[in-house]
């Protein structure tokens, strides 16, 4: 079995397949955690980017509840799978801060719906607090899973250029090289359409910056705001991480170009000033997310391509979804 892609999805797949004693090799075109999994904000949130009230409207009550349950379980199971390795995990909770009256009303409604459905969420008059949420160092988490793989099971620097399904397997081409795999699983997220153009995943850029350690605490827990378009947190060592503002330039951010832009970075700089952070900005970066039309991941056999499976399309919440999605795909195989 061949897994393509070495992010949180690919390394989770390798982990779950190994637990089921299924022989698998993972190939990655750059290095482990090179993609969004090594560049994200590290929020471990229950649910999707939209509020629970909006998710209930979009997916229906049952489905919304299932999504919140699976992502809650993802948090617990993924951290357990690190088996005590240091992955920067803290369960501080998360706060969703409304940017306007509409969002405020949705969050107040969400509190009630979440409580009715058995989730621990409270509106404190300003923010919706979810006590079970947390944060993680995403690259460390990917490394913690990768480290548990069999020797030789991960091959970095292998850029798959084509996959051709056959009756009893799949021919995989990487430049001049070829191999046969019984089954291929695409864990290529935003990059999936480069291999299979019919897959509807929209590459979408997200940008961030980080500061040097700031002595002042600017937040007690990871904060999400403006329908998920703004987010910030502060590490235990003081560094402030802030990202988002994609909504100010939605069209230019529909891209696979992973360079930060002056336009979005200026918004992040302004936000840092508003927080009165004096520490200097030390890092600026961008990563590429994979958006699906439904806002939910794609998991399972790929239509029209025998022996090819997909585990991708995490729409901005891969750290919250991928470990359990990978489990589901491994089980279906
Ligand atoms: C700035 C930013 C902030 C974010 N914040 C959060 C957050 O706080 N919480 C959260 O849950 N999510 C967040 N996300 C989203 C999250 O990072 C992604 O959903 C998640 O990392 C996707 O994981 P993945 O393994 O599917 O994809 P990736 O990590 O992108 O991995 C895909 C890998 O496939 C490899 N690949 C692609 N094509 C090929 C090929 N042909 N051959 C070989 N290898 C190939 C790539 O090199 C890449 O390493 C954020 C994303 C960004 C960019």
Describe the structure in your own words.
This protein has 333 residues and is of the alpha/beta class. It folds into 2 domains: 2-38 and 141-201 and 294-332, FAD/NAD(P)-binding domain, CATH 3.50.50; 91-133 and 202-291, D-Amino Acid Oxidase, subunit A, domain 2 (D-Amino Acid Oxidase, Chain A, domain 2, 2-Layer Sandwich), CATH 3.30.9. 29% of the residues lie in helices and 27% in strands. An 8-stranded mixed beta sheet has the order 5-6-4-14-15-16-13-17, sandwiched between helices. The longest helix has 21 residues, at 61-81. It is globular and about 60 Å long. The mean pLDDT is 97. Bound molecules: flavin-adenine dinucleotide (FAD). Flavin-adenine dinucleotide binds at residues 4-10, 27-30, 34-37, 39-43, 158-160, 187-191, 195, 206, 208, 243, 287, 289, 312, 314, 316-320, 322.
Number of strands: 19
What shape does the CA trace take? globular
CATH topology of the largest domain: the name is FAD/NAD(P)-binding domain
Report the structural category: alpha/beta
Full CATH superfamily name of the largest domain: FAD/NAD(P)-binding domain
Q: If classified by CATH, what would the architecture of the largest domain be?
A: 3-Layer(bba) Sandwich
Query: Low-confidence stretches at least 5 residues in length (pLDDT < 50)?
Result: none
Q: What strand line-up does the widest sheet have?
A: 5-6-4-14-15-16-13-17
Biggest sheet character = 8 strands, mixed
């Amino acid at each position: 079995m061949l897994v393509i892609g070495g992010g949180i999805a690919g390394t989770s797949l390798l982990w779950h397949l190994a637990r089921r004693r299924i022989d698998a090799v993972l190939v990655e075109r750059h290095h482990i955690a090179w993609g969004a999994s090594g560049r994200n904000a590290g929020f471990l949130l229950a649910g999707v980017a939209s509020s629970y009230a909006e998710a209930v409207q979009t997916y229906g009550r049952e489905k919304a509840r299932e999504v919140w349950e699976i992502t809650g379980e993802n948090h617990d199971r993924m951290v357990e799978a690190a088996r005590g390795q240091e992955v920067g995990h803290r369960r501080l909770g998360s706060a969703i801060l409304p940017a306007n009256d509409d969002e405020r009303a949705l969050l107040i409604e969400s509190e009630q719906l979440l409580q009715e459905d058995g989730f621990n969420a409270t509106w404190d008059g300003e923010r919706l607090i979810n006590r079970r949420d947390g944060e993680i160092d995403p690259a460390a988490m990917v490394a913690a899973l990768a480290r548990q793989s069999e020797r030789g099971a991960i091959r970095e620097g292998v850029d798959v250029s084509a996959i051709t399904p056959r009756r009893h397997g799949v021919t995989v081409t990487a430049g001049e090289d070829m191999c046969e795999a019984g089954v291929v699983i695409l864990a290529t997220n935003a990059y999936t359409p480069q291999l299979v153009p019919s897959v509807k995943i929209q590459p979408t850029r997200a940008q961030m910056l980080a500061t040097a350690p700031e002595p002042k605490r600017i937040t007690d827990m990871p904060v999400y705001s403006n329908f998920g378009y703004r987010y910030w947190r502060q590490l235990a060592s003081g560094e402030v991480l802030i990202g988002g503002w994609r909504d100010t330039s939605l069209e230019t951010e529909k891209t696979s170009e992973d360079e930060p832009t002056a336009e979005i970075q200026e918004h992040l700089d302004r936000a840092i000033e508003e927080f009165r952070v004096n520490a200097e900005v030390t890092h600026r970066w961008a990563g590429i997310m994979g958006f699906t039309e439904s806002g939910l991941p794609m998991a399972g056999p790929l239509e029209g391509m025998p022996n090819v499976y997909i585990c991708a399309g995490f729409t901005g919440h891969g750290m919250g979804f991928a470990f359990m999605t990978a489990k589901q795909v491994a089980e279906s195989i």
